[in-house]
From TrEMBL:
Protein name: Large-conductance mechanosensitive channel
Task performed by this protein: Channel that opens in response to stretch forces in the membrane lipid bilayer. May participate in the regulation of osmotic pressure changes within the cell.
Keywords linked to the UniProt accession: Cell inner membrane, Cell membrane, Ion channel, Ion transport, Membrane, Transmembrane, Transmembrane helix, Transport
Family note: Belongs to the MscL family.
Bilayer topology: Multi-pass membrane protein
Gene Ontology annotations for the cellular component aspect, listed alphabetically: plasma membrane
Annotated SUPFAM superfamilies: Gated mechanosensitive channel
Annotated GO MF terms: mechanosensitive monoatomic ion channel activity
Record-linked NCBIfam families: mscL, PRK00567.1-4, PRK13952.1
Superkingdom of the source species: Bacteria
Location(s) in or outside the cell: Cell inner membrane; Cell membrane
């Protein structure tokens, strides 16, 4: 089997396509979560902690040459330990993990509801060929000749 045909069969599998769709949706979802954290959650956290601050500007200068008040300017001046950015990313992760937890919980609930549905009371009729073979079998059992 050539590498190209092997690759083609690998790509055609359902799991690979599902994974690709998940990654694309996850990438788009990251933007939503980032906006949620930066635009909605962090301003509330800043207001509650007294001062309306943003964690992303919290840093410790690792060089005496760094005197800037904002992280962006401080990075231009020298090395900084930007722990505020880490706090923001950690909050992003927690929110994303919680939302995914809620989604999985909802899907599991839908699956459980689907499993609880009663099966149809009347089974579907067998295909015509099976039905004909059953009639022939029954006739042979009774000893009636087939005409």
């Amino acid at each position: 089997m050539s590498v190209v045909s092997e690759f083609r069969s690998f790509i055609a599998k359902g799991n690979v396509v599902d994974l690709a769709v998940g990654i694309i949706i996850g990438g788009a979802f990251t933007g939503i979560v980032t906006s949620l954290v930066n635009d909605l959650v962090m301003p509330v956290v800043g207001a509650v902690t007294g001062g309306g601050f943003d964690f992303s500007n919290y840093f410790v200068a690792l060089s005496s040459a760094v005197t800037a008040p904002s992280l962006e300017e401080a990075r231009k001046q020298g090395a900084v330990f930007a722990y505020g950015s880490f706090i923001t990313v950690a909050i992003n992760f927690l929110i994303l993990a919680f939302i995914i937890f809620l989604m999985v919980k909802g899907v599991n609930k839908l699956r459980a509801m689907e499993e609880k549905k009663p099966a149809d009371a009347t089974p579907a009729p067998p295909p015509a060929d099976i039905q004909l073979l059953s009639e022939i079998r029954d006739l042979l059992k009774t000893g009636n000749p087939i005409r």
